[in-house]
Amino acid sequence: MGLVTGILTLPFAPVRGIGWVLDKAVKAAEDEYYDPAPVQEALVNLERARDEGDVDDEEFARQEEALLHRLEEIRNYQLRQEGQGGQGGEPGLW
Asked: Which domain of life is it from (predicted)?
């Protein structure tokens, strides 16, 4: 950015700053939403609950299917991010 451009666009600096902050907030929210660790932990807890008799087989199958679908959604998101050259998280998390 040249000196003249910098001076002329100075009034828009707060808008650019807000855009930067919003971009960082969206990135942090996506990272949290697409983190497979809580889903994997939920699968472990579900298995434990079934072993302890707190969850019957039908309920286990229903919840397991939903969690596995969520893991698939996360993996697809990570693959799309890697394909776009983005930072799709750590490869091989699961």
From this structure: Bacteria
The whole-number average pLDDT for the span 26-37 is: 94
Residue 36 tokens read as 């497979």
Residue ranges of E strands in 34-79: none
Q: Report the alpha-carbon distance of residue 31 to residue 51 in Å, rounded.
A: 32
Structure confidence at residue 86 (pLDDT): 54
pLDDT in tens, 34-88: 999 999 999 999 999 999 999 999 999 999 999 999 999 999 999 998 888 755 4
The enclosing H or E element of 84 equals none
CA gap 72, 59 in Å, rounded: 20
φ/ψ of residue 44, rounded to 5: -65, -45
Q: Is 86 left (phi over 0), alpha (psi -120 to 50) or beta?
A: beta
End-to-end, the C-alpha distance of the chain in Å comes to 43
